[in-house]
Amino acid sequence: MPHPPTSRTAGAKVVVVLAALLVILHHDFWWWNDGSLVLGFLPVSLAYHAVYSLATGALWWLAVTIAWPARIEAWADESNASDAGGESRIAPPNQVQASEADA
Amino acid sequence: MAPMLTIAQQAAAPAPTPLYVVGAYLLALLALGIVTKFFFRGTSADFFVASRSIGPFMLLMSIFGTTMTGFALVGSTGEAFSKGIGVYGTLASWSGLMHSAAIFLVGIRLWAIGKRHGYVTQVQFFRARFDSDLLGTLLFVAMILLIVPYVLIGILASGATVRGITMHMFPDTFPPTGAVPPWLTNLVICSVVLFYVFFGGVRGAAWANTFQTIVFIATGVIAFILIASKLGGLSAATEKVVEHAPTRLIREGTFGHAEFMSYALVPLSIGMFPHVFQHWLTARSAKSFRLTVVAHPIFIFLVWLPCILIGIWGASMFVTGDLHLPMLPGTETPNQNAVLGAMVGSLDHADWIIGILTAGVLAAIMSSLDSQFVCIGTMFANDVVIHHLGASRFNDKQTLWLGRGFVIVVVTVTYLLSLFAPRAIFGLGVWVFSGFAGLFPLVVAALYSKRVTRAAALACVLVTAGVWFALFAYNGFGKSEGLIAGMLPVVYVFLASVVTIIGVSLVTKPLPAEVVDRFFAKERGTHTND
To answer: What's the whole-model pTM score?
Structure first.
């Protein structure tokens, strides 16, 4: 398990850089016209993108480990919303009051 | 070597056993719907958002099942049949990155906001965020208009799949092909899904999705193994493609570079799917999202990779005359929507296995339809009935039935479209996702920018919908891809959305702080973006 950075912001930056790298690596132009096979049955580009999918899963594991939005989570838990119990009918959200003229 | 899978060589009509198995599966779903009724707490909170009680595993299953539609199985197989292995890169690998990004960056925040403010629909959030009834109305209309072709994809896929496995099965009842006609399959599928969601609401949909996602992943793997085995093994199957359909192994000639890259924007549509939004709101906690974010790309890999291989194997079989497909009406072009069903139906295994595999495909289709149906009813009940007529005008039961009535109307319209406006599922799917993706900048702006204005949000919806619809109509309502300068229309729809939001925000008055601040988490006594 990777040692998490000292702050969530640093973790987020790592994830952003890796995600950007994955975006760039998605375009495997070097195999555009290559029909050779890997493991005897997988076209090489298909194999590459299959591995890409697995790498993406690893990226998101890293994201939930070192860049988890804990503050959002805490903010949600501050809520006193009664809908979690579901025992009474949901009251509609606050009705719109501002004038459209402000637009 | 004599062809092993030629349907036309069968002397007698195939036994209807696969249909009995499918029928049994549908009955099981009806029973599930009845069972979930006993867990239904009788409140609209439970019906619409399962009382926000869904844990990590079911959240993963329901979100993944919802997003893996007939597009993912039937559509991807058919598109790979036509265009080869590049299809995986256009959407599967992009979706693994972009879907999880949207869930992580948008889904968790929307869940938090939904929990704090008691929302059950997207429209409620946007209406409150931008303090605009008009925006709510526009979005409601836009979402319903985009959901219709999305539901159409599922309906088309179910009809094509069952038709594929029942070719020559009932020669006297359904001449000339002897296959169960799509109008009948579509009617049955819509009715079954309506039944179990009417009983259990979104909790029923979540349970059904969990069950069906497991079914379609498991049967997908089994189908892949059996089809490969029948073709002589993985290597032998692909070698046939090398020999008979080598263009399916590369992207040269089928995808342009700009086009391939432009697919990146399509998966962002998940950020604006109203039915996925509703599933997000069902989460028990933020931590429930972790498994979904991480596992989503892996599950996509498990589902799409076999489908792409089956598609290209089918292409070689079609060239050699070993796979027979219905033609598109009035043409000599094979109906690519029927490829998966035909490949499964051509297996010479026990008929009950074919039935199970077919049920798996239908499971994937229905796991999206149920969420879409629930969502349509939820939106109508909350965004139209309760919002415009008042919460006290109708009791819970009446409100739920009004929602159900609206669902029946929308599903009926879509069913009729399926009879008179068939389309290639993959192409139609890309168009639908492009419309939702075009609105993604709106939700990002709403969640991350306090500066975006009401006017910008209104303009964004109008401009995005207008640009999308103009391009959609110009291209025969989904008949063609509509590439512009080599790129998908989604690029231009998305660009129009971004330019509109930023441009109009810069020249219009921002919303008051007391309206905006309640949607942003505080930090050390100040209101900031996270």
So the answer is: 0.86
- Please say whether the beta carbons of B332 and B353 come within 8 A: no
3-state secondary structure (DSSP) of residue B255 = coil
Nearest chain A alpha carbon to B134: A100
Q: What is the pLDDT of residue A68?
A: 93
What CA–CA distance (Å, rounded) separates B376 from B203?
A: 15
- Residue B4 token pair: 């092993």
B211 contacts B35 by C-beta, under 8 angstroms: no
pLDDT tens track for B110-169 = 999 998 988 888 999 999 999 999 999 999 999 999 999 889 988 988 898 888 888 888
Query: Is there a contact between B117 and A69 if contact means CB atoms under 8 Å apart?
Result: no
Residue B390, φ and ψ in degrees, nearest 5: 100, 145
Question: Taking Cα atoms as reference points, which of B431, B439, B382 lies closest to residue B106?
Answer: B439
User: CA–CA separation, B431 vs B416, rounded Å?
Assistant: 20
CB B165 within 8 A of CB B14: no
Q: Which among A8, A9, A39, A46 is the top mutation candidate for probing chain B, defined by the most B β-carbons within 10 Å of its own β-carbon?
A: A46
Residue B75 DSSP one-character state: I
The answer to whether the beta carbons of residues B160 and B337 sit under 8 Å apart is: yes
B438 phi-psi bin (left φ>0, alpha ψ -120 to 50, beta other): alpha
Give the CB-side neighbour count of residue B515, counting CA atoms within 13 A: 23
Q: Are B206 and B50 in contact (CB under 8 A)?
A: yes
SS3 B176: coil
As given in the structure block, the two tokens for residue B186 are 């579509």
Buried b (16+ CB within 10 A) or exposed e, B346-367: bbeeebebbbbbbbbbbbbbbb
Question: Looking at residue A95, what is its pLDDT?
Answer: 29
**Hey, what are A16's tokens?**
């952003």
Strand partners, B41: none
Dihedral sign, Cα of residue B463, residue B465, residue B470, residue B475: positive
CB contact under 8 A, B85 and A37: no
Check if B341 contacts A (Cβ < 8 Å): no
B300/A52 CB distance under 8 A: no
Place of tokens 């303009």: B459
Q: With 80 as the cut, is the pLDDT of residue B475 above it?
A: yes
Upstream peptide bond of B176 is cis (omega within 30 degrees of 0): yes
Residue B16: burial class (beta carbons within 10 Å; 0-12, 13-18, 19+)? middle
**Burial group, residue A80, by CB count within 10 angstroms (0-12, 13-18, 19+):** exposed
Burial of A85 (0-12, 13-18, 19+ CB in 10 A): middle
Rounded to two decimals, the ipTM of the complex is 0.86
